[in-house]
Each structure stands twice: as structure tokens, then as C-alpha cells.
Amino acid sequence: QVQLVESGGGLVQAGGSLRLSCAASGRTVSLYSMGWFRQAPGKEREFVAAISWSGANTYYTDSMKGRFTISRDNAKSTVYLQMNSLKPEDKAVYYCAYRSEIFGGTYRIKLEEYQYWGQGTQVTVSS
Questions:
Q1: CA separation for the pair 22, 44 (Å, rounded)
Q2: Closest CA to 78 of 2, 1, 6
Q3: pLDDT at residue 105 above 80?
Q4: What is the rounded CA–CA span in Å between residue 63 and residue 72?
């Protein structure tokens, strides 16, 4: 089993920034990709960003490009999501996800491809 714990959510004004963290523990394997998803009230969970084990490959939903940055520190088993220029529509519960990999350059964008999920952290953006 792998445990994921998100932190860093909170209330911020529009235009502000937040940095989310997700720490992995337990039976993590040598190579794993990570992703961030979010779920707003009454909506389905949607993809935000993903990063390969190496950190060299990342992918973002179009609406997040240029505002959000995903990164990771493998020594700390932690992935980050730096969110800038936040908008009220970014309000959601943000979840991190984990997937074991064979290749260090692989990332995943589909929800169903991930094996483990965190409990989520609430992000609220006031206008």
C-alpha cells in the first residue's frame, strides 16, 4: 500500500498563489509517476497536471498552462503544485495520485490509470 498526504490548500484571493504538496509513503516502488486532479462541487474529477519520475516530462490541462507548475523531489517522495494567478473557478478539492512505472519518463493523464489517491486538500479562491 502507498499512502499519499496532500497539504497546502486554503483560502486565497483571486490573483494569489498557493503551493500544494503531496508526500508519498509506504510501499513505494523505484519508479512512479504522479498527477494532480481536482474536483469542484457537483462536477467530475478532472486532470490538472502530471509529472514523470525523472521530472523531465510534464503535462498540463490547457487552462492551467502558464499558471500552474508541477514539480517533484524524489529524495523527499514529494510532488508539488505551484498555483499562481488563481481564479475563483479554480476552487476545488485537489487530489494527488500515484502510479508505478517501468520507464522514468512516463506520465499519465487519465484518472483510471492511477493506482493510489490522497484524501484531497481544499482550495478556495475568493473574488
A1: 21
A2: 6
A3: yes
A4: 21
All cell numbers assigned to 76: 523527499
**HSE-up (13 A, CA, CB side) for residue 10:** 11
Q: Where does 2-120 show beta strands of DSSP type E?
A: 2-7, 10-13, 18-26, 32-39, 46-51, 58-60, 68-73, 78-83, 92-100, 116-117
Residue type at 19 in one-letter notation: R
Model confidence pLDDT, tens digit, residues 44-86? 999 999 999 999 999 999 989 899 999 999 999 999 999 999 9
Assigned C-alpha cell, 28:
513505494
> Residue 27 in contact with residue 90, Cβ under 8 Å?
no
